[in-house]
Specification:
Length: about 240
């Protein structure tokens, strides 16, 4: 069981996969939570109550290399077939899950209906300290990213595989976005991450709704009452 709902776990491409089923009245739609399945589940629980399937697949790295993105796409196709559901999913990405969601939507827009991002990492260089972000975990972040992408201190400045480097497919495919952030977030600096996406959408006629949480840091994610997020997602599911 997962938060009171029937839950199935199995291996998919040697990764742990999870499908959480609505208690009743399944609506043939999928919510893909890209990372941190158990974190801040208020939105997910409400979507399950509305008939959505909640799916998740574990990753060998949280930094969304192409291999992990490709496996996630295969997983969505598999779930859509097995559940007799729409392959165009609702994407939910929190923090590094936002990185995974955005890269997934840019590479596989045909599998995405609408995207919910929450304090998303969209600029990997920002997380490495090329900006205002500073944290005690930067050395660990550096090690993880070197292992994922293979750059070094000489080549990292040429890195161009962050979501902010490839936003055009989101606009070209009319993917609506709702995005939350805390205006006191020093872990994922909004001006270097989500704000870039917000500005791009507004400059290019994209459909985006942004909710700033006053005096809020990186946590908590979500809203005490997720109805604003749900309303946007359901109104814009296409």
């Amino acid at each position: 069981m997962w938060n009171g709902f029937e839950c199935e776990k199995f291996l998919f491409c040697e990764r742990t996969a999870t499908i959480v089923k609505p208690a009743e009245n399944a609506n043939g739609r999928i919510l893909l939570k890209t990372e941190y399945l158990d974190a801040f589940p208020g939105f997910d629980v409400e979507m399950l109550k509305r008939g959505y399937y909640l799916i998740h697949i574990s990753h060998r790295t949280r930094w969304a290399p192409d291999e992990e993105t490709d496996i996630m796409a295969d997983f969505v196709r598999y779930c859509a077939k097995e559940l007799n559901a729409d392959k165009r999913c609702v994407l939910e990405g929190m923090s590094c899950g936002g990185l995974q969601a955005a890269k997934f939507a840019e590479k596989y827009p045909e599998l995405v209906s609408v995207m919910y991002l929450d304090a998303p990492v969209l600029n990997i260089l920002s997380q490495l300290g090329f900006g205002e972000h500073k944290s005690d975990s930067m050395e660990q972040t550096w090690r993880e990213l070197v292992a994922t992408y293979g750059f070094n201190k000489s080549t990292v400045v040429n890195f161009r595989k962050s979501p902010i480097d490839n936003m055009k497919p989101l606009i070209d495919n009319n993917i609506p976005v709702i995005m939350l952030y805390g205006n006191a977030d020093s872990i994922v600096v909004y001006e270097e991450n989500g704000k870039v996406l917000e500005d791009y959408y507004k400059e290019n006629g994209g459909n985006i709704k942004v909710i700033a949480k006053s005096m809020c840091g990186h946590h908590p994610h979500g809203l005490d009452d997720p109805s604003l997020i749900i309303d946007f997602v359901e109104h814009n599911f296409n």
